[in-house]
Amino acid sequence: MNPPFESDRPQIDRWKRKIEVANQHNVFSHCHQCGYEWVGSSEDRPCPQCGSDRLERILCWQFPDG
């Protein structure tokens, strides 16, 4: 007997890869120092507005459409 979803392994692996790519390129950032907000990559950079490292980052694919 196969574990659940084992027959879908290639499709599951493709979904995981797509999520990994989305995590790298679609990050909403909010600066707690000055309030500046932007969408960019997941690189760990300070706020482009004030240079603060007090940031909150949320992966954009987690936001519902609409």
- Helices and strands, in order, run as HEEE
Can you give the mean pLDDT? 83
- Overall 3D shape: elongated
Helix/strand-derived category reads: alpha+beta
Describe the sheet with the most strands: 3 strands, antiparallel
Radius of gyration: 17 Å
Strand line-up in the sheet with most strands: 2-1-3
Q: How much strand content do the residues show?
A: 15-25%
Terminal residue distance = 42 Å
Question: Based on DSSP secondary structure assignment, what is the total number of beta strands?
Answer: 3
Query: Helical stretch count?
Result: 1
Taking pLDDT < 50 over at least 5 consecutive residues as the criterion, the unreliable ranges are none
Helical residues, percent:
25-40%
List the main descriptive attributes of the protein structure presented here.
66 residues, three-stranded antiparallel beta sheet, 26% helix, single chain, alpha+beta, 3 strands
Structural account:
- This is Rubredoxin-like domain-containing protein.
- This protein is of the alpha+beta class.
- The chain contains one helix and three strands.
- It has one helix spanning 9-25; strands spanning 27-31, 37-40, 55-59.
- It has a three-stranded antiparallel beta sheet.
- Strand 1 (27-31) and strand 2 form a beta hairpin.
- The longest helix is centred in the N-terminal third of the chain and has 17 residues, at 9-25.
- The chain starts with 8 loop residues before the first helix and ends in a 7-residue tail after the last strand.
- The mean pLDDT is 83.
